[in-house]
UniProtKB/TrEMBL annotation:
This is Programmed cell death protein 2 putative. It holds the Pfam family PDCD2_C. PANTHER family: PCDC2 PROGRAMMED CELL DEATH PROTEIN 2 -RELATED (PTHR12298), PROGRAMMED CELL DEATH PROTEIN 2 (PTHR12298:SF4). The lineage of its organism: Eukaryota, Amoebozoa, Evosea, Archamoebae, Mastigamoebida. GO terms for cellular component: cytoplasm; nucleus. It comes from Entamoeba histolytica. Residues 210-307 form the Programmed cell death protein 2 C-terminal domain.
């Protein structure tokens, strides 16, 4: 990844564009970087999760020459989980024209995790019996037929389904200076009344007067269609003053204080129709990572903080 803030945007994925581990994309099934793929088990409730997106984020470290984040959502406990995997230099991915997954196991058509069962009437693979049951109503209409990808569609054609439609995520550097944003933000805050409660402002209106929310909107306004922001060891954009952690979380493996790396913005939901397809909702998902990118070539959990729009 480049230095500075990188913004991500949603684009349609074409049929000929085959998903691969070094492609930034959302929806469909995960494309695994390394071979040691874990079982699909939500760390909070142990139920199977659904794939949301993957982000290719290599670092200039020996062990992180190739590096991918995977974001999952659990439809049972409604929690989000981020896995990270990395490979050192010297693998097949070093070749300029190589972009296939090196995982050879069959993968669940719902989430992309290794399969352990199949449809009883055909060879369609699933990671577990729950995902087989989860897909039963939709699958019985096409049982035995070749699998078809669900490419992103216009919002007026979106409908509830078992996994998210596929989209491409393209990245561009943020195109305005931070100094200009801060001056604009300061002027907005100076014009605010310092005591909202005395003015009788409704709780729903606090969203408009919260300095954190104003800062969020001021920065996002430069590229309103952005759905993702990336900056290793940068600072996240929060959507509200409460629920901001005092300190970044610690790495669950080495104990070092994690650094901010990337976040998903609420525009992502609308741009990918996740609210319609999977009934997913959030304000922002902030992803931290170990500053040393520890964990070897295992798939490791990285800490996240999720803010919602309620109770701002």
């Amino acid at each position: 990844m480049e230095d500075g803030i990188i913004c991500g945007f949603i684009e349609e994925l074409q049929e000929e564009e085959v998903p691969n581990p070094i492609m930034n994309r959302s929806g469909g099934c995960a494309s695994w970087l390394g071979k040691k793929v874990p079982n699909n088990s939500c760390p909070y409730c142990q139920k199977p999760m659904l794939f949301m997106l993957q982000l290719y984020a290599p670092l200039e470290m020996v062990q992180s020459y190739h590096r991918v984040f995977y974001l999952f959502h659990c439809p049972f406990c409604l929690k989000f989980t981020v896995l990270r995997n990395q490979l050192p230099e010297g693998t097949l991915y070093d070749k300029e024209d190589f972009c296939e997954s090196i995982v050879t196991e069959e993968q669940c058509i719902i989430c992309g995790f290794p399969s352990s069962t199949h449809c009883p009437d055909c060879t369609t693979p699933y990671c577990c019996s729950l995902h087989c049951l989860y897909d039963r109503e939709e699958h019985k209409l096409k049982c035995g037929q070749p699998l078809q990808r669900k490419l992103g569609r216009s919002r007026d054609k979106a409908k509830p389904q078992k996994n998210a439609s596929e989209y491409l995520i393209v990245t561009e550097p943020e195109n305005e200076l931070i100094e200009k944003e801060d001056v604009q933000l300061k002027k907005v805050i100076e014009n605010m009344h310092p005591d909202n409660e005395d003015l009788g402002i409704k709780e729903s209106d606090l969203q408009q007067s919260d300095p954190v929310w104003i800062k969020f909107n001021t920065k996002i306004a430069k590229d309103p269609s952005q759905v993702l922001r990336y900056q290793f060891n940068g600072k996240p954009l929060w959507i509200k003053s409460n629920d901001i952690p005092q300190h970044p979380p610690s790495c669950p493996r080495c104990g070092k204080q994690c650094v901010f790396e990337w976040q998903l913005l609420p525009q992502f939901i609308y741009a990918t129709n996740l609210d319609i397809e999977l009934n997913i909702d959030f304000g922002t998902i902030v992803v931290y990572s170990c500053p040393d990118s520890c964990g070897g070539d295992d798939y490791v959990n990285e800490p996240i903080v999720v803010q919602y729009f309620d109770c701002i």
